[in-house]
Amino acid sequence: MNTKLVYSTDKTVNINKNVIKEVDLNPSEQIVYLHLERKGGGKILSIVKGLKHPKQKLIAIAKLLKKRCGVGGTVKNNEILIQGNFRDKIKSLLINKGYNVKLSGWLGSMKFLVFKITLSFLSVIIGLGVAVKPKLKRVFLV
Q1: 22-105 maps to CATH 3.30.780.10
Q2: Distance of CA 109 to the CA centre of its chain
């Protein structure tokens, strides 16, 4: 099979040789994205994407994150996979190391879903004759 890479937006790819160079940028020059991914059986992974370091440094960072979170994880495809939902803890650890961290993934949609379900539940309660103030952000039912 005769294939040749013609164009790539990844700056680490050399088009002439199709070889990926290992880049090691300072933490302050990098933007790191934290994703949540749901796997089969309801298991959640925290995924750290966008780190521009050699493989050995990624493994060292993953080891630190796993130790601080108290869970397992691995490094695959230049991404750090941590078992469980530890985005807030990982975010604080990476910010302390000097990285620019942004959250992404399904957490925002989950907050919207919970809000939507809460509104549906409130409309049922209001239909039953229970008065609820419309400006409440959180509702606690006892």
Answers
A1: yes
A2: 13
Tally of CB atoms within 10 A around 79: 17
For the record, the structure tokens of 25 come out as 């940028």
In the chain, domain spans:
22-105, 106-142
Q: How far is CA 14 from the centre of its chain?
A: 28
In degrees, rounded to 5, the angle at the alpha carbon of residue 92 between the alpha carbons of residues 87 and 98 is: 125
Evaluate the CA torsion angle 23, 66, 76, 81 in order and state its sign: negative
| pLDDT tens digits for range 110-138 | 554 555 556 555 555 555 555 555 554 55
The whole-angstrom separation of Cα 62 and Cα 80 is 6
pTM: 0.61
Cα–Cα dist 28/73, whole Å: 24
Using alpha carbons, select from 137, 61, 70, 122 the residue that is nearest to residue 93. 61
